[in-house]
User: What shape does this take?
Amino acid sequence: MCLAIPGQVVELIPEQPMLVKVDVGGVRRNVNIGLFEAGEIGLGDWVLIHVGFALSKVSESEARDQLRMLSAMGEDELALEEVRGYTFDADVGVLS
Amino acid sequence: MMKYVDEFRDPALIATVAAEIKRSVDPGRHYRIMEVCGGHTHAIYRFGLRDVLPDNVELVHGPGCPVCVLPTGRVDDGLAIAAEPGVILTCFGDMLRVPGTRGTPLELKARGADIRMVYSPLDALKIAHEHPERHVCFFAIGFETTAPSTALTLMRARELGVRNFSVFSNHVTIVPAIRAILDSPDMRLDGFVGPGHVSAITGCRPYEFIARHYGKPVAVAGFEPLDLLEAILMVLRQIRAGEARVENQYRRIVPWDGNPGALRALAAVFELRPYFEWRGLGFISQSALKLNAAFADWDAEVRFAIPGVRVTDPRAAQCGEVLKGVLKPPQCKLFGKECNPEHPVGALMVSSEGACAAYYRYARVGEALEA
Assistant: This one.
């Protein structure tokens, strides 16, 4: 549960500043960035994701290391399944 | 020797750190180092790190696995909420297979209860938003890594005025559990590998008492084999130098002061319970989070009559001893027999972060290969 999933921010949603679209191994889902200050997470940034929330901002190489580790631990499929399972959208996913 | 580690990157670097570890230990002494986090336990077994360490360096598995420390009575309480008319109970996948007195959430679902797996608390809120005629309760578990997500979800629920949503909070905090282990007379530990992603939220300061008051070294670690070995080396070097302080091996993720936004969210939504029961560790004061008065309308323990009955573990299962690090998984009488990942009797066999599941999955394979 505590293994975080690395993903890259591929879309900002200007009217929803607490929500970004993240790409994890080709799967694109909304992720909440409410644990960060406004403007701290930008387009192209890499983040570690845990239960739908960005937990840490990381470098691209750290994100790739993390992905490789998930796969070495046999958790990469589970991680993709988790990200695929995020269904929340702007209706509930953000604090205005 | 290095069964799994050599599949990983930097085998040369790993060999160097392993040699350093060997040089740092006194061959005439036994070292017991607890890795607190279940993710670390999983990684240690997966990468066969025991085989890289000298025989006199023993890793003791700690209580950092959320479903493992949840006592059976709390599982029953959650399932009692699911049995209330009109309720949809939502939980993470790990929770679905944790046995309560009358079965697991998955078995109750098969018997007709509306229990749904979610990957994020926000998805539970979304279900509530889409089903105003139902009540949606989120069975929240997890340490400080997960609790801020529940907090932000509750803040959003209040902002939206979603009244058909509640949280059954079983969030726990790691520091009081470490203190309980340090105070336990049957535990003799020489140092700690501190949790990685919990510390990304809390920072390293909360562990300072371990060094200051108990004189034990702590190294907060990442999850890669090299991270864990480096952290173990940090602890061993401190022991050799007669020092005790908190070091941060996982600096790339863990800020010394933690994540201020997450800590603010926790403070805004939760308060400490006077005490909370942990499987194996018993009642620990100020070790768990409940919703504060401002969020009473979303607190499942206020909304529903929770049985709150304390249930002892099946007598033969020794989850508590394993959880405290007194026993290793295969020393439990049920391990691999009645209790296995297909049919877990105890929660430590359910989650991949549970010591028993990790041991079952990897260590047995390793032993079979050696034989």
In short: Strands of chain A lie at 5-12, 19-24, 27-32, 46-50, 53-58. Chain A is about 25% helix and 30% strand. The mean pLDDT of chain A is 88. The first strand of chain A starts at residue 5 and ends at 12.
